[in-house]
Amino acid sequence: MLWPVETKSVSPVFVGRVDELGVLNDALARAAGGEPQALLIGGEAGVGKTRLVEEFATAARSRGAVVALGGCVEMGADGLPFAPFSTALRALRLALPEALADAAAGQETELARLLPELGETGSRRHDEEGMARLFELTARLLERVAADRTVIVALEDLHWADASTRHLLAYLFRTLRTGRLVVLATYRADDIHRRHPLRPLLAELDRLRTVRRLELRRFNHTEVGRQIAGILAHEPDPMQVDAIFERSDGNAFFVEELAVAAHEGCRTGLTDSLRDLLLVRVEGLPESAQRVARIVAEGGSTVEYRLLAAVARLAEDDLIEALRAAVNANLLLATDAGDGYRFRHALVREAVGDDLLPGERSRLNRRYAEALEADPTLVPADERIMRLASYWYHAHDAAKALPTVLEASVEARCRHAYSEQLRLLERAMELWDATPEPIRAALRPVDYTEVYPPCGCDPATTPLRYLDLMAEAAVAGRLCGERERALKITKRALSLLAEEDDPLRSAWFWVQRSRLVQSQSRGDGWRELGTAQDLVRGLPPSEVHADVLARAAHWSTLRTPGPDALSAAERAVEYARMVGAREIELNARLTLGGLMVDAGSVEPGLAEMHEVKELALAEDVPDVAGRAYVNLPSMLEAVGRTREAVPLLEDGIAYARRHGLLDNEAWIWANRSDSLHTLGRWDEADDAGAQVLRVGLGVKPRGHGAACLARIALDRGDLAEAARQLTVARGHFGTHDPMPQQSLPLARLALGIAAAEGRLLDARAELVRALSVGIPPGSQQHGWPLLLTAAIAEADAHALPIAADGRAEALERLRDAAKRTATGVPVWFAHEKWLRAEVRRAEGRDDIDIWSDVVTAFESLDRPYDLARVRHRLASTLLSAGGDDERDRATELVRLAHAVAGHLGARPLADAVALLAQRARLALDGGSGRRGVPSDPVEAFGLTGRERDVLRLVAVGRTNRQIAEELFISPKTASVHVSHILAKLGVAGRGEAAAVSHRLGLFPTAG
């Protein structure tokens, strides 16, 4: 006979949540308009998150939206990799089979890692970009599916999510750009303790302006009354409402349980523990139903009927009766697909699971594992090995667990679920010593370890050794970003190797340590690389040897380029060819090409880099091709061939996006920002810099993006924004591993900001710090702009009293640094001429011929902003010389410079040009001269006579008290005048006002 429970415990009336539904419906409307939406819904267990999502989904479906639900699967303490996304994509495939197939076309082998129904997974190599590539393809898949219809992807129980799911969700929230798409996720707020892995993700997402976060509160007294009325189908007794509200504290789930308990009248002896309340519902069932409930609680979030039958070992009729009793009691629910069962609420499952005895828990896991081994078809094929590994592990059977855990780690790697791969490999290390030797002798061979040489004669057949296991774990840790854990593993491996004579494997682990130390901001990694080089020196050629040489050459390229780096790159190419390590060879050749350009062999070096790019594309080596799309345009920019770089960068962005090379894409956007800035396309350069911050995962490309934005802000006169972005860039780059390509541009920005704010001494100090490290060979593209910025600062400040002391030393320092900086191509030869002209200006020795020579040098280059600046300087020199011919020539130069400055939005240059024209009474509109233009440029700022007097004194460094004494006014009145002056000049402080005054020549005789 069935066990009847007729009272509903879920209210048919949806209570409250008006504001929350309003937010969700607003998101739906925005998404329908083509603006992707991202939402997080948090709340304590039982507060009603699922009910809210269901209500929203029902309403959305009625408006024509397609809803795909996916839940994070808890299996013991393990989450299945990408489980909620796999479930959601299956739902989309069922609802929109043709649309999803079209959206996935051409990328099925990659996307099959999330949705196995698409086919076999690809065999592309695994690297740091592998997971990012999968994420990018998933984002584009969702955007394409949602191009013509509104799609809602709802992921529940994010607190149980595996690390790969968390990373993918964060990526989607950051990068979704188009499509009628809503992505929302729910999580238990009360589970997010200080060390919970979801906590840092929530903090990261909170910083994204595109993500809205809802926190569900508990019901108030009125809402509890309405909920009870819906459950009982009549108005409840007010005293009963009071009692239930007090005990439940407004938690919707507990309200349901307490209302049913009160209605049935047999629950009056309940303890004060709400956990006991949940167990009482179970204890009221027949023994067979209680037994089935305990089995389901240990099986995972959902248990398939056939698997449950195999574990329960009941006659089918008895099992069905037990299930019917549990379902009628609203304890268990059938899954939507009708092939399994789950608890109505996770709180009940947790209460039942917690009530299991330790031996009982192990026994149930063993029975699950035995059933699954006997019949692998009991669960979906893509879940089988993961679940089997979990069951055996929690059954505490090392001999059975170790082989299945290792097999599951391969499955995780194949799905790019590197975080889960690492967790499984660490579990294997934990099981290793407890596993009998005969079992270890029959383990699978080594899996993916890059160029690590596995133990044994034949890597394809030799069983895995413990050191091999550590190598797999080290690679997995680096690929998933768990670098601290990987660092500990490499340290332990090197400790074991210290007792053996195994230089090749030791060298491999030292290389891993070098890479991890750099990525963890623990140092520059050279000591570790040096140790690896010492270990392989004198050994026969091998992939490890070639890899060590290639990485050493690349390291030197970024930090100490020169003959030693060139020699290391050449040897790396040679060794890689000898051992057939094609990818290492191509990478080393790319490094070699860049070093050749730096050494002055520009055309051969660029030809080498072009050839490597074409070979990498033809041989389908995305990592090398992606790096080529970063490095080759950068070298073209470095030698002044910017117009050749831009189309390559556009191709590179498309290639990187197509292959999911996110950090490569970010670097390409940063290089594109540099090149567009050079070409005078500043709005596009600004957009490209912002795109770096949206796309980049690593801190280094994001630092470059922030530096790009800082430079544009500085050139446009927005000093506050320039300083903010400089701080951001410094935070990303850190101080542990200074590279010239990072430190020199940051020094130039800091120097430029200090000079613009009138802090000449700070600007000089910045230059001294930068030159104390030096400008290494090959760094001229960063060195010349730094030296030039310093020279301009000295020249602009030549009339400041504070500038006289130390000027000679500063200019000599610039001359000396310039002598040691290469000028091998026209663009840097032009910069060298410009610097010499600025140094002479700083000394009060402006010369028309010298400035004419500078202008001529820049007229042959594609650098409109630089050309406008030197034209302005030549015009100023011509006007100082006097004469009609000089005036006519200056007029044309001023008009050209003014047009460029206006087009770019370069406010400091525009102001300087306009004031020069006003002072010389030149017409900028093409006329012979503007009537009524004040001969005194101070009037252009709208300063009163008294404010002009005050500014003159500010320009020579007077304090408010000194100004008051000299002008016979009070210090307070002087302060008010200074505030008005700062506002009219559009500057932030007195130093900047003084700098503007001197730079624009407002008071030629000041000081």
Give a written overview of the molecule.
This protein is mainly α and 1007 residues long. The strands form three sheets. It has a five-stranded parallel sheet. Helix 12 (274-283) crosses helix 16, helix 13 (287-299) packs across helix 15 (316-328) and helix 43 packs antiparallel against helix 44. The radius of gyration is 35 Å and the shape is globular. It starts with 17 loop residues before the first helix and ends in an 8-residue tail after the last helix. Residues 1-8, 266-272 and 928-935 have low confidence and may be disordered.
Please supply descriptive tags for the structure shown above:
1007 residues, mainly alpha, 5-stranded parallel sheet, 49 helices, 10 strands, globular, disordered N terminus
Beta-strand proportion: under 5%
Mean pLDDT: 87
Distance between the termini: 106 Å
Radius of gyration: 35 Å
Number of E-type strands: 10
Class by helix and strand content?
Answer: mainly alpha
User: What is the overall shape?
Assistant: globular
Give the neighbour order of strands across the main sheet.
Answer: 2-5-6-1-7
Classify the helix fraction into a percent range. 55-70%
**Largest β-sheet summary:** 5 strands, parallel
- Which blocks of ≥5 consecutive residues have pLDDT under 50? 1-8, 266-272, 928-935
Q: Number of DSSP helices?
A: 49
